[in-house]
Amino acid sequence: MFKELDPLLHSQVRLAIMSLLIGVKSAEFSWLLENISTTKGNLSFQIGKLKEAGYVDVDKSFRGNYPLTTCRITDKGTDAYQEYVAAIEEYFKQIKK
């Protein structure tokens, strides 16, 4: 009846990260931080969880003398996100019945 929800995406911060990344080619850590209500440490931790799962790629470089972290969603992450959204939509459809 109800599809199982991806526990990795069923976290507010991780879902926010994926929702932002799905619409852009890549995003800098600072931009993600500005758009998600969380701390630097928590954002970094949650990005790490998504990276471990293969949902995002993380590039670390420098801009001038400053570290620059850039994230982008992977094909696997896009698929997982779309499946998650479809599963949530099914939950809402059940309510309407």
Describe what you observe in this structure.
There is one protein chain. This protein has 97 residues and is α+β, with helices and mostly antiparallel strands. It has one domain (12-92): Orthogonal Bundle (Arc Repressor Mutant, subunit A), CATH 1.10.10.10. 54% of the residues lie in helices and 19% in strands. It is built from 4 helices and 3 strands. It has helices at residues 12-21, 29-35, 40-52, 75-96; strands at residues 27-28, 56-63, 66-73. It has a 3-stranded antiparallel β-sheet. A hairpin with a 2-residue loop joins strand 2 (56-63) and strand 3 (66-73). The chain is elongated, with a radius of gyration of 15 Å. The mean pLDDT is 94.
Question: Which CATH class is shown?
Answer: Mainly Alpha
| Uncertain spans | none
Helix content: 40-55%
For the largest beta sheet, what order do the strands appear in spatially?
Answer: 1-3-2
Say how many strands there are. Answer: 3
CATH architecture: Orthogonal Bundle
Based on secondary structure, the structural category is alpha+beta
Number of helical elements: 4
Radius of gyration: 15 Å
Tell the overall outline: elongated
* Percent of residues in beta strands: 15-25%
Characteristic terms for this protein:
elongated, 97 residues, alpha+beta, Arc Repressor Mutant, subunit A, 3-stranded antiparallel beta sheet
What is the secondary structure topology, with strand pairs?
Layout: H1 12-21, E1 27-28, H2 29-35, H3 40-52, E2 56-63, E3 66-73, H4 75-96
Antiparallel strand pairs: 1-3, 2-3
